[in-house]
Amino acid sequence: MTAPPRNPVLERPLKVTLSFTSSCNLRCRHCYADCTAAASAAELPAAEWCGILDRLEADGVIGLYIEGGEPLHRADFLDVLRHAAGRFHVQLRTNGTLVTPALAAALKAECGIATLLVDIMGPDAATHDAATGVAGSFDLAIAGIRAALAAGIDTQMLTIMTRWNAARLQDWVALAAGLGVATVGILRPYPLGRLRQRWAEASLSLEEMHAALEALRLPPGMRLMQSWHPNNGNCCWQTAAIDAFGNSIGCAYLREYVNFGNLREVGFLDTWAHPLHRQLRSGAVTESCGDCAATQGSHGGCRSTAFAFHGRWDAPDPFDRATNHGVDLRVLPDRPL
Amino acid sequence: MSCPTGHYSQMPGLRLRPVRELGVCVVFAPAEARLFRLNAQSWLALELCRGGTTAAALRKAWREVVTSDDAEERLRVALDLLLANRLLHHEPAPAEAPMTAAS
Ligand code: SF4
User: Fold this and answer.
1) In A, residues 147-166, which contact B (CB 8 Å cutoff)?
2) Which among A100, A102, A82, A101 has a CA at the least distance from the CA of A90?
3) What is the ipTM of this complex?
């Protein structure tokens, strides 16, 4: 009998996602964090974030992926980013609306960020602003991308594929090309936060998702990041995440399902050693897609979507063709969290 | 094939994060805002250049660890990769310093 495949084992994480705030200046209907306009008083202040960064560095973390909410919406965010400068490889995900030329210059020169990832939900103001709930947000976000590119920041465009934008993805690609964005990412939707409330309206079937991807024609030189088969990665093996309140949650997409402890009370590496965190990283799953495991170096597909549809941590990932087995992604099981 | 000469040192500010479980070292280069994943030999060469070293001392230290017949070639490959990615700084020996217009 052959041993079941397992993911690579990391004793300490290399990269951590920081969900810096649950506040935002937009009101996206697809928001996973269910953001509010004002930051909660319970969110970690900058000084505590800086203390956490010091501990993460000592624990061997070398890369940060920072998202929100909208990180730039909190006035003290740049203090934290400057604290990370020169010590961590930083990727910053933003809605782009607050990225002025002056801010872009600071992100480059003072904060030394590696990559800016900007969410653009459609190719024009009508599609994007309908998603964000704020008129004018498209124009501001596009201005933000232009400012970041002009400042010399590696700037990428992201979108979440939904029924609201799937038919417009080719135009979205053309928009990116016209801006001079060389790398774009089309992300699967996750049934979290406000998108969970509108899942039936927003989600496509797996076949519709693949049809939209396969119809895309990329201009020469453009790189597309997408995580459907045969790129259905299980990144759990190397991922850790901390939410705006200091909770260690494994991955931003696990935010509604797990809490391995609050860093105000327990050490980060203690949460990394939590039995469920270990289990999710291990690749202990009942079924895996061989093609995706071969391309991604880990196997089992996303644990967040597997859990959302099956309610089991070792379930197959229904977003993968090989392990979908007839699950209709438009129908979210009614399961208490 | 030319032997390494001169003086080698790590670029300032590098952060090395060994990942012994995978036999690699991840390096953060702040000047480039980039991460590099080094195999064991490039990692060894970079470690041996910590604090700066002459080529002679580097070759000696390398030979103590890498004992295969092609050890010199492996060192050269590792140094070329580290130099190409600007993880190492190389100071040529005086005799091999490039001629300037005034000289
Ligand atoms: S839950 Fe999904 S996205 Fe998150 S780390 Fe695991 S596989 Fe990756």
Assistant:
1) 154
2) A82
3) 0.93
Distance CA A131, CA A118 (A): 14
Is residue B4 assigned to a domain? no
Structural domain count, chain B: 1
Task: Output the pLDDT for position B100.
Answer: 52
* Bridge partners, residue A23, by sequence: A36
Pairing of strands A89-94, B15-19: unpaired
For residues A45-53, give the mean pLDDT. Answer: 98
Residue A235 CA to ligand 1 center (angstroms) comes to: 5
pLDDT in tens, chain B (103 residues): 467 889 999 999 999 999 999 999 999 999 999 999 999 999 999 999 999 999 999 999 999 999 999 999 999 999 999 999 999 999 998 766 555 544 3
What pLDDT score does A298 carry?
A: 93
Could you tell me which of A96, A49, A72 has the C-alpha nearest to residue A242?
A49
Does a structural domain hold residue B31?
A: yes
Q: What is the pTM of this model?
A: 0.95
Which residues make Cβ contacts (< 8 Å) with residue A11, sequence separation at least 6?
A: B21
Distance from CA of A9 to the nearest CA of B (A): 7
Instruction: Count the Cβ atoms, other than its own, within 10 Å of residue B26.
Output: 21
Residue B2 lies in a domain: no
Whether B68 is covered by a domain: the verdict is: yes
- Inspect the interface and report whether the beta carbons of A10 and B15 lie closer than 8 Å: no
Task: Quote the domain boundaries for residue B18.
Answer: 9-85
Mutate to test the pocket of ligand 1, among A303, A307, A312, A313 (most ligand atoms within 8 A of CB): A303
Whole-number Å distance between alpha carbons of A183 and B16 = 27
Query: A193-216, pLDDT tens digit by residue?
Result: 999 999 999 999 999 999 999 999
